[in-house]
Amino acid sequence: MSLSRICNLQSSLRAAAKGFQLGGQTARSLAPPLLNVRPISSTRVIRDKQAATAAVVKPVQKQHDWNRAVSEAEKIVGYPTSFLSLRWLLSDEIANVALHLRKLVGSNHPLLKTAKILIYNGKNNMQAWGLIVLLVSKAAGHAASVPDLEQDKSAGVLHSQRALAEVTEMIRTSHLVHQGLVNLQPLANAGNELSGDSEMIFGNKIALLSGDYLLGNACLQLAGLRNQELIELISSSVRDLAESNFVGDRDQQNNPLPSKPEPKAASSEQPGDDLGFGDLEDNTQPMNIKDVLGNPEKEWSLRHILGAGSLLGKSCQGALILAKQPVRLQKQGYLFGKHLSLAWQACIDLEPFSGTNLPAGTRFSLVSAPVLFHLEHDPSLYEEIKKGRESVDNIDYAKIHAEVIKGPGLEKTRNLQKKHSLAAMAVLNELPPTDARTALQNIILAMQDL
């Protein structure tokens, strides 16, 4: 591919992303379109804020510059880890997708929001997941039995670990792209003519095909590593991503709704101490959700372990499998990725409640930790939530926001974030002191400033 074509491709991607104006929406989990038929909402967008930053070796400063942090952390592992800047821009298939994206400008299709997050850095940067995997790889090192040809000695990681980092990013991105699929009519109208929604239909086709392309290539690259244990582990994380779309109650558009609070599941003043939730002896097996829904902390953990923590944790574990590290250290890698992801999600959940007033038209996740903790404290607020069973458009977000601000949910969420941060930090403290370990520690410290 010529340099001029790459430049034109980058311009097309940026033009498509700039054409979509975000209306202050919150993230929603959208299930596969063939299984859940939903009417379209003109305000529907996808918002992803997962663990996506890294810090430099020096102490973290207030008002942390996330773009600079990622850039400097990448130097520790040798090169920009994002597959977007490498394999994506050199792929004819993705080049065609980028050109078609320009046709969606002005259509308000959620795929444009995903494209914008992919292109622009910042706190939304989903591409740092691969960076975290490589930092864990370098911090833990590898066994002496690993052949020299497998090692990238200048960066301190293995070539197979770099490939796994790209697989992680591709799986994560394919999941987000697939979430951009929207259903255009309720089940009662299924089969009717949809010619008036041609732009949205086209957007669905692009989201479906590009997501499948990424997932297919991730599977191909994973198989190329020729490690049966690793393949089974990462495949189970893909299963978890799919299951995350079917947890708990949903409205007709498949937006997640919190479960009815269960009195028997009431927790103490502090969030529960069950840090081991989701830690199975064999974590390739499905998680047990018995008695989880209705318990605020466990329900929150279940949703976000399935939707993000499983992939990051198992990718960190997989990197240590490739390094031929002991089984105990491999499991510690999983725990680090899981707790880091949950700590980051707790920070993101707090963001909409940073101000006393909710801007007009703004929405937030109804299954965020502050809302779930407040429902435990004041179950009467669930009556407002129930209005959203047909559509979340019927819910008074300003009322819920005002109630949550006054309740104990925010403080409990801060404690939840600190608990998972300390758990992730405890894993790092078992590793030898290196610049990679320090960078990972700074990632955790930087979350306190969000």
Describe the structure.
By secondary structure, the protein is mainly alpha-helical. Helices cover 51% and strands 2% of the residues. The protein contains 15 helices and four strands. It has a two-stranded antiparallel sheet. Strands 3-4 form a two-stranded antiparallel sheet. A hairpin with a 4-residue loop joins strand 1 and strand 2 (157-158). The model is unreliable at 19-63 and 265-272 (pLDDT under 50).
Question: Outline of this structure?
Answer:
The chain has helices at residues 3-18, 66-77, 92-101, 110-119, 128-140, 159-178, 198-224, 228-243, 296-322, 327-350, 369-377, 382-386, 397-406, 409-428, 435-446, and strands at 151-152, 157-158, 249-250, 256-257. With 450 residues, it is mostly helical.
Major beta sheet summary: 2 strands, antiparallel
The fraction of residues assigned to DSSP E strands is under 5%
Helical content stands at: 40-55%
Rg, rounded, reads 21 Å
Low-confidence blocks of residues: 19-63, 265-272
With strands numbered from the N-terminus, the spatial order across the biggest sheet is 1-2
Order of H and E elements: HHHHHEEHHHEEHHHHHHH
CA-CA gap between termini: 40 Å
List the total number of helices. 15
Average pLDDT over all residues: 77
The coarse overall form would be globular
Structural category is mainly alpha
- Give the total of beta strands: 4
